[in-house]
Amino acid sequence: MNPAAGFAALAAVCTATLLIGVYGLRISRTTGDFYVASRTVPPWWNASAIGGEYLSAASFLGVAGLILVTGLQGLWFPIGYTAGYLMLLLFVAAPLRRSGAYTIPDFAAARLDSRPARLVTSAVVVVVGWLYIVPQLHGAALTVRITTGLPGWAGAAVVVLVVLCSVVTGGMRSITFVQAFQFWLKLTALAVPLFFILLLLGAGSRPITDGGAAFQADGGGPVYPTISLLVALLFGTLGLPHVLVRFYTNPNGPAARRTTLIVLGLLSVFYLFPTVYGVLGRVYTPDLAAAGQADATVLLLPGRLIGGASGDLLTALVTAGAFAAFLSTTSGLVVSLAGVVSQDLFRGSVSGFRWAAVLSALVPLAVALSTESLALAGTVGTVFAFTASTICPLLLLGIWWRGLTAAGAIAGMLTGAALCGGAILLAATLGGALGPFRELLEAPAAWSVPAAFLTTIVVSRATADRRPASASRMMARLHAPERS
Amino acid sequence: MNQEPLTPGWAPADPPAPGPQRVRVTGPRSGTGYSPARFSVSRELDEQSEVGELFIRSLIRSQLRLALVVAGGFGAVVLGVLLLVLLLPGNGVALWTVPLPWLLLGLGIYPVVLGCAGLYLRAAARNERRFRDLVSESEG
């Protein structure tokens, strides 16, 4: 592969991101602009931005890699990612928009009227955000190593640098533009090369599915991990900090719902493409699975099938799309983490927000540089399991159940974090020694999420005399529709 | 007695520089007592009239029931597809060499997601409209 193509793609995406960020800076005037774009972003822009932010390394590279390795089983990932958004629409979108809070800890504080609940929520949100940034940086390292030949750490460092530049200067307003742009870039970067690949294969009468052989060699897959994965993805999406903050950029509850519907459409269309890449990979690049490089399928396929200069050009486009994925998800996470950290540490000033952004990006960079990349989609699935076990009970019960108390919420979050985090660490350290329990511990969501819910409810009931006095008023605010 | 300030930070501020005033913007929202975004109908219910409380409770119940029904329906579809895929992995049904399980998981579920979302949006808006009508009736 021609490294020049990789360098050119990298430079182009980074420059475009920074330029749009600077352009956004000029129309970013107030604190409201800076944090949440003053809540005036129209649904289409906002939906593109949400899509841009949500489609991370796991979606752009990981899904195709997973389909290459596991076949049919891999298809459950994009389904879970999309259906997670449906759950968000059903249970969270409009009430959360009406809550008037900017971040999940703000919501916890307002709903439960409790400073400890706020602090625990902040800590959980920061952990989730950091865990989620790490695979993005792993993806960047992989992409840079494969397309330019540079050492992997350079890719992670470039992503962090560009994100910090655009976040520190522009805040949320410019991020909205940047991410809307990046969604369409990602879609184009997968669609155009795929179009030419299919055209070429069709013209040369080369097999696309190898007469169905691409779909062979796998059954339905194991039952328990699939169910646990679905639980994690369906309930984990609710609690992703960078996804939630986006809903505050809608002008009102109905607009928040409309935005979610558009996002669902965009996601459904998008996931078609990594799926086809994965199927083609099963025919043309099966060697990647054996080499442990399955996540590179999307990057390598255009070059392998279409050689020469046009192959380089298409590879450059895919590389650009991959970088857009790392940049947009990372910047979305950094913005929302910085919002949380600056609230609790720096009292919410804009300069505090900037310092918090630096802190939020450098910690995961350090973690990413000191760890090895695993399968991207799998790592992200683990983060979803953790989110579903901690933030999801707080949000769902906080929105729909008057009886939630601060003690219940804290107990639930800590239980979920301990169970889910403990299980994953245990599975990672003991591995094969666990025997039949390994499956249960590697994919803990199916039992850790119900356990967290149960703890929250039981403790809330036990402390029912300490229900916040403002609960009724908050419930009214969350659910009463805006005057139309 | 002429006393020096203890630290430089205590020195009186310089007179403001000429030109446009620099406005310091800060987060309006630390602590729990931030002022919320505009919310209107709930403002009237804020004073906790018993009727208002009743309306809100019934609105929340109907919205929750709606969300649970849609989520349950979707869950049933997913579970059905999961079982189908497990029980009939290679039953030979295929479209352009793509077997049925791949079609269901790769294509078929997405329209179901969108359909559920569309149904929910319409029904949720209807619930809210009914609530608004109730409130304005009880006011008028």
Automatic annotation (TrEMBL), chain A:
The chain crosses the membrane at residues 6-25, 45-69, 75-96, 117-133, 153-171, 183-203, 223-248, 260-280, 313-340, 352-369, 375-397, 409-433, 445-464. It holds the Pfam family SSF. It comes from the Bacteria. InterPro entries: Na/Glc_symporter_sf, Na/solute_symporter, Sodium:Solute_Symporter. It is a multi-pass membrane protein. CDD domains: SLC5sbd_u4. It is found in: Cell membrane. Keywords: Cell membrane, Membrane, Symport, Transmembrane, Transmembrane helix, Transport. Belongs to the sodium:solute symporter (SSF) (TC 2.A.21) family. This is Cation acetate symporter. It comes from Arthrobacter hankyongi.
UniProtKB/TrEMBL annotation, chain B:
Keywords: Membrane, Transmembrane, Transmembrane helix. Residues 1-38 are annotated as: Disordered. It comes from the Bacteria. The chain crosses the membrane at residues 66-88, 100-121. This is Integral membrane protein. It comes from Arthrobacter hankyongi.
